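Changelog note: in this version the structure field was regenerated for every chain. One regenerated record is shown below for reference.
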Amino acid sequence: MAEPFKLDSRLKLCASFVRENSKVADIGTDHAYLPVWLCKKGIATKALACDIGQEPLQNGIKTIEKYNASHMVHTRLCNGLSKVMENEADDIIIAGMGGETIAEIIDGWQYSKNNNKHFILQPMTKSNELIEYLYSSGYEIIKQDCCKERKIYTVMLAAFSGKKTPVTKEFTYLGKLSPKTNPIHREFLEMEIRNLENKAKGDLKYKNVVENLKKEL
């Protein structure tokens, strides 16, 4: 099916993790580009475009109407997943927020521990805090990738496993990336290392983490 419009690299990567014939909830949808694109492409059967703000949701409604998707994409004014029922979403996209906020949204949804649910997560900051939350709360990362759109972003696919797994500090920055074989993964890790080097100037506990991460390059 032809693309209704082009997604940027960040949203395109999120879309690539969505399962065929799934019901999607896009949390913090803004202009609803992702749910409309997924439904018009025939990847998602239905989608909820959710946002905490009335103005972004109005922008979403305009996109839905413009591309004649109102029979497939519905909007919902809500905080995180608070008004999304279990049978309304198989794949949940939470993109464009801080890692700690994404963790709070997952933690606050009563259906998050259904292991049939897939979470497609794109943290803008603090991806390490999100990874630490996932593994300490019984989730695991199924796969992770990066893309470049002005800056480098990482997207991870996670699901509940029921197994709380201790992870190293290094793993919270590296996750499932392969910087030795993937140039964009390498750039993402180099960016993380630079940030940690700045922190290490004022806090020596980051020094060993930096040195260990450099070995992964």
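Spot check on this record: The chain has a mean pLDDT of 96. The longest helix spans residues 183-200.
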